[in-house]
Amino acid sequence: MKIYGAMLAIVLGVASLGAQNTDSTGVKPDNTKVNRQDRNANQPTADQQKNNATDLDLTKNIRRSIVEDKSLSSYAHNVKVIRQNGTVTLKGPVKSEAEKSAIVSKAVSLAGGADKVIDQMSVKQ
After folding, report:
1. Secondary structure of the chain: what % helix, strand, coil (to 5)?
2. How high is the mean pLDDT of the chain?
3. Quick check: pTM over 0.90?
4. Quick one: fold of 22-123?
5. How many Å apart are CA 119 and CA 44, to the nearest integer?
């Protein structure tokens, strides 16, 4: 029965990959241009995320708090959360300053202070 449950979870996960993720106006978010900045060697990227339990748990908790907030746009739900060397970096476009503030607030409360969060998000015009 455990194997069946695992197979079902995989099938559902793959099926959800094909789902269209759109914002409230029906526009599919496209971060291609924004993601080009991540090619700079000095910028933290998801592949630099540390794999220790503390960093992974904090990143997971911040990501969960963002995604569970249904008042946020799909842009906000797709913000990158990267933790390395005790600092959380937030990157990507959001729809408004209010969304940006909400995400920073969530990260600060979970990370333990404003000095542990770097906000590199931008407001999409």
Report:
1. 50, 15, 30
2. 76
3. no
4. Macrophage Migration Inhibitory Factor (3.30.429)
5. 12
